[in-house]
Amino acid sequence: MAIRLLEYNRSDFKKWANSDELVDRYLQMRNRLKAPENDMGYWVNPKNGKSPQDLVNFLDNYKSNSQKRTEAKAGATNIYEDDNWMCFKIDTYDAAKFYGSGSKWCITGRYPGHESKGEYYFDSYLQNNYSGYYVVINKHPEDKENGVKWMVCPKKGEPNRADIWCQKDYTVNAIPGFFGDIPGLPPLGAVVMKNGVVSRNPSTTKGVYDLVIPQGAKEIADKTFYKQAVSSIKFNDGLQKIGVGSFGGNEDLHKLIFPPSLKEIGRLAFMGCGLNMVQFHADCKIGPGAFSWNDNRFQVLGFNQVSINNVAEDAFSESVVTFMLDPNDTEHIEFANKIGADVIDRNGEKIND
Fold first, then answer.
1. Tens digits of per-residue pLDDT, 263-322?
2. Separation of alpha carbons 241 and 102, rounded Å
3. Domain ranges of the chain
4. Spatial separation of the C-alpha atoms in residues 183 and 176, rounded to whole Å
5. Dihedral of the CA atoms 194, 132, 138, 253 (nearest 10)?
6. Cα dist. 339→195, 279, 331 in Å?
7. Rounded Cα–Cα distance for residues 69 and 243 (Å)
8. Which residue, of 114, 178, 225, 349, has the fewest CB within 10 Å?
9. β-pairing, 85-90 with 133-138?
């Protein structure tokens, strides 16, 4: 029955097309087509009102997925690439759709409930709000949950400002872990670095959140991340100095693991944070009030590696601190007793009065 139905459809299709050349052309392309156009009955059925010329026009305008990808890519220019990142300047809506795959950006036609308005949004924002569109892609993301792409939209008439949209379609102040310099765009990362000194990107507003210190950094500038809503810091190996008041007032900052290269923590560097744990891996100078006025009781690990002569007497003032130390480390235990801190051993047992 199925074979007779197929023969009937093909015979009927040939009569309808009235052209062996058109039939052959259609049959050659049929396997690449999607429903309903891949069904001969769709073209023959008078209810659909299709003519042979409609089929000719459809085949002339048909583009395979590979052709669409090629054309979409032609609508964008790769303007930046390094080992971890690349950036494309988007010039066409097709390119926005292609490079916006996996996102919810409205200008790509991927915002739920607004898919049909994608091209309208693309043109409207370009006309009224932005001077261009750029997609920045992380080639080796550690945190795929929060996306691997960001849409960067420079403000019209404001060359030093840009809106940055994460893949989930909400604005962010900076692209986490990005330190590149993209032509025509303001700094996009949370930090900028000059001569090995790291400071906050001046184009970002309050809200650095997850901070990554770039490789090559030697020093973090004074007060640069003061009250910037920093919630985590990943220090680079090679960092030597944290400046005065660099991270003060970040109440959501709970954990610090310092690299072995660190030589100095400045005065009031982490005053007024919400620390739970601090870990040292080598000797370093700790300035006055560096860990003062902390909101939580916090535990200090690796403190035995820090020379007491390098620690200011009031480094931990007005904070409730617990040091984990060896019971035989009398020098550090004496310091803890002097500032009224608890001392525990590796088993968590309290070993001082």
1. 999 999 999 999 999 999 999 999 999 999 998 999 999 999 999 999 999 999 999 999
2. 40
3. 2-62, 67-172, 191-344
4. 19
5. 60
6. 38, 19, 13
7. 49
8. 349
9. antiparallel
